[in-house]
Amino acid sequence: MQPNHDPFEPEYFLKHAPYWRENFFYFPTIDSTNLEARKRLHGPQGPREMVLVADRQTAGRGRLNRAWEAPFASGLLCTLTVPLAPLPLDRAYLYTASLALSLLESTWQQAGVEVQLKWPNDLLRDGLKCCGILAEIEHGLGRDRNESWLALGFGLNTGLSEQDFAEAGLTGKAANVIPPGSPPLDREAFLAASLAALAVYREQLSRDPDEVRLAWSAKLITLGQPVEVRNMGGEKQLDGLAVGVDPNGGLQVRTAEGRLHTVQAGDVSVRPAGGGYA
């Protein structure tokens, strides 16, 4: 079956999610939905909750400022804007965690596909990355310049071909969220379902943030696994067993010597049985 590269249909999405009609923006091509969202947060209307979707990005970025490109309409490229309040800055990661959980639930509900969550915010299908999330923060917003807002961006692979993965050097590392031979994902309905799920998690965040943290950590397949940690520059930092996450979302890794390290940022690879890292 050939990948589906039909453009995203805004009106079809808005039939599923009419709440967003005044604050939904679609771009056939854009530099980056995150960049555009951050600009609009400083716009004349002031910061507000928005949903931005593009079918192609020319300057997309992933974690650690890596370039991220994909063919037209081969994925769901989206950014949401949300206020940081009522959470403090050191709990901002819980919005990313909430988004990851929402995408995980929608994948099962909309496509019957079970994906896994790898610390801190990668979604995997059969051990291959199918979605990444990038959160960026803007301070000094609002009438009194005292508000902080997040641009929550994600890229979900939906229609990449084996040739696309090969040309990107990602064969055996990345995949579409839908298995080969399955019907294409309805991106519009999927996004509407994900936003509805996220609304539930955000209500939980306002009531009991730790409830979301525990739900997120319970889904992390990284925990209980031997891992390798590399820093931003790609240099190996340590090997050990991932044993938990701290209140700030840091991954707790215990080395063979028994020392407990907390990793706040970097690359964490899970070592499966049989050797190697994934």
Radius of gyration: 19 Å
N-to-C SSE series?
HEHEEEEHEEEEHHHEEEEE
Count of the domains: 2
CATH architecture verdict of the largest domain: 2-Layer Sandwich
Beta content comes to 25-35%
Written overview of the protein:
This protein has 278 residues and is of the alpha+beta class. The chain folds into two domains: 10-219, BirA Bifunctional Protein, domain 2; 226-270, SH3 type barrels. It is 26% helix and 29% strand. The protein contains six helices and 14 strands. It has a seven-stranded mixed β-sheet with strand order 1-2-5-9-8-7-6. It has a five-stranded antiparallel β-sheet with strand order 13-12-11-10-14, with no helix packed on it. The radius of gyration is 19 Å and the shape is globular. The model is unreliable at 273-278 (pLDDT under 50).
SSE order and pairing:
Blueprint: H1 10-16, E1 24-27, H2 33-41, E2 51-54, E3 60-61, E4 67-68, E5 75-83, H3 93-111, E6 116-118, E7 122-125, E8 128-141, E9 147-157, H4 162-167, H5 187-207, H6 209-219, E10 226-230, E11 236-245, E12 251-254, E13 260-263, E14 267-270
Parallel strand pairs: 1-2
Antiparallel strand pairs: 2-5, 3-4, 5-9, 6-7, 7-8, 8-9, 10-11, 10-14, 11-12, 12-13
Helix pairs in contact: 1-5, 3-5, 3-6, 5-6
